[in-house]
Amino acid sequence: MNAAPILDVLIIGAGPIGLACGISCTQNGLSYLIVEKGPLVNSLYNYPLNMTFFSTADKLEIGNVPFISHNPKPTRSEALEYYRRVSMHWKLKLALYEAVESVTPSSNVFRVKTSKSLYQAKKIIIASGFYDIPKLMHVPGEDLPKVHHYYKEPHIYYGQQIVVVGAANSAVDVAMETWRKGAEVTMVIRDEQIRESVKYWIRPDIENRISEGSIKAYYNASIAAIRETEVDISTPDGIETISNDFVLAMTGYLPDFDFLASIGIAAGTDPYQTPVHDPVTMMTNIEGVYLAGVICGGLKTNKWFIENSRHHADLIISHILQKN
After folding, report:
1. pLDDT tens string for the chain (324 positions)?
2. What is the CATH number of the domain that holds 68?
3. 257 and 128 share a domain?
4. What is the Cα–Cα distance from 297 to 309, expressed in whole angstroms?
5. 224 and 296 in a common domain
6. SS3 assignment for the chain
7. How many domains does the chain have?
């Protein structure tokens, strides 16, 4: 692999915030490349097919490109179309399907080795999100093929007895959609109620389905063990065993802390292991390495969204320009 010319900025992650960073580089005359291990906006692509955003379209906009949705809240397919349009409008420089393997400082630049090439850059922006590593339950049987940590669409669950683990938006969406498409749904909820943060137009619906008995729910409960045809549920009244065909563990996802540590980025001592960074400049404890987007929240993955982290791009590029 031959090293390319030295870039001003290399951006890891082609999600909306990574794209916003590329746009800010373009606007300020900085050479850059956005490297992404999957397709454009990989995390959004892997969302459920029928997902609807909590935010309105205007709050998902970047780069002064209008986001026109045909719905009160935009859908996954509309978002994919929008960010493709943004990328084409700004002629963003992308290296898709190219995984970053290492980032190493070398003679005032960073050497970035990927699965396809070797790059050099003066600054690094990590905007890689958190959707790639599922938060495991660490129970016997979790490695069985019938256990899914990602959900795409309901058809394969028709006529099946499924357990949905979780009480946040993703779990509620999965429970409602699979039930409506003919699955027998049981929810296992660690808390005593459905999360208050669940989309306001969905929460009454799931609560009513549970109240009427259409969807069974175990509160203050957790999965104890999973077998081919059964699941053990730990409840306040003891272990309950139910028949089961699939477990959909909507338990959340984790940032790639190992990757951050390999670069030297320190994790905070707070309960969320928040990666160390300056909230004004977004620079980490490693000079010249910045964080942008949801990865800034560590384990608190519901802290940052597209709408409240779009400005990270301008904070970072402003600081880079000041340092040059």
Report:
1. 455 689 999 999 999 999 999 999 999 999 999 999 999 999 999 999 998 898 899 999 999 999 999 989 999 999 999 999 999 999 999 999 999 999 999 888 999 999 999 999 999 999 998 888 899 999 999 999 999 999 999 999 999 999 999 998 899 999 999 999 999 999 999 999 998 888 888 899 999 999 999 999 999 999 999 999 999 999 999 999 999 999 999 998 888 999 999 999 999 889 999 999 999 999 999 999 999 999 999 988 888 889 999 999 999 999 999 977
2. 3.50.50.60
3. yes
4. 11
5. no
6. CCEEEEEEEEEECCCHHHHHHHHHHHHCCCCEEEECCCCCCHHHHCCCCCCECCCCHHHHCCCCCCCCCCCCCCEHHHHHHHHHHHHHHHCCCEECCCCEEEEEEECCEEEEEECCCEEEEEEEEECCCCCCEECCCCCCCCCCCCEECCCCCCHHHCCCEEEEECCCHHHHHHHHHHHHCCCEEEEECCCCCCCCCCCCCCHHHHHHHHHCCCCEEECCCEEEEECCCEEEEEECCEEEEEECCEEEECCCEECCHHHHHHHCCCECCCCCCCECECCCCCEECCCCEEECHHHHHCCCCCCCCHHHHCCHHHHHHHHHHHHC
7. 2
- Is the CB of residue 222 less than 8 Å from the CB of residue 189? no
Domain that includes residue 164, residue range: 136-249
Q: Which two tokens stand for residue 285?
A: 């404890």
Q: What's at 111, amino acid-wise?
A: R
- Are residues 121 and 83 part of one domain? yes
With a CB cutoff of 8 Å and minimum separation 6, the contacts of 202 are 169, 172, 173, 176
Nearest Cα to Cα of residue 323 among 9, 23, 3, 11: 9
